[in-house]
Amino acid sequence: MTSEGEAHAKRRPVVTIDGPVAAGKSTVARELARALGFDYVSTGAMYRALALAIRQAGLEDIGGQEFARRLDRLLATVEIAVSGGHVTLNGRIVDSQLSEPGIDELASRLSVLAPVREKMRALQREMALRGGVVMEGRDIGTVVFPEAEFKFYLDAAPRVRAQRRFAQLIASGVKTTLEEVLQRLTERDERDSTRELAPLKPARDAVVIDSSALTVEAVVDRMLALIKSKNFRGS
Length: 235
Description:
Oligomer: single chain
Helix content: 40-55%
Number of domains: 1
CATH class: Alpha Beta
Mean pLDDT: 90
CATH superfamily: P-loop containing nucleotide triphosphate hydrolases
Distance between the termini: 38 Å
Shape: globular
Strand order of the largest sheet: 2-6-1-7-8
Strand content: 5-15%
CATH topology: Rossmann fold
Structural class: alpha/beta
């Protein structure tokens, strides 16, 4: 029988990329996974899929004990998976629906709930255990998979991140202003970094990269060099 330690030694490494919203995690993680031949998992997309499930179940505007009761029931039955770069909700690909107005904000509110994080953490750990994964989110290297071989924390100046998100929203046909996006981003940063459950912060052994003045290619190249050097150490 193969021991857990032997199985861990034989599997391919896990790479985690944490950081705040619009730091470039998704694009960088996708390109890094492609370069390594690994699977790419966006945990943020998984939370948005759950938010979509909440909306479809009509729970978005329900509060109190009724919401808690129905949320527990939904968490017990909902199926969320990431495969081939696509997110599925109860067996259906929902990529295009994850950018619907309000889904990102609803996902952020759900992420502070203990039952939600417990459910998602279990799903994410299951994906990471097989190895050969680049997983990005906000607490992957600190909480979800702290034993990952390679950990990064990708950051950027708030206004740079707001400009990136603003461009994404405008391209998607969402009407907003840069200042509105910056305000929401600042509020999201505050909520993510101060929440009691799994706050946003770099893992102690993560390499922190500021992408404010870097291209995606430059960030990916730096990560690849660190991974291939076999001398990876947090800074």
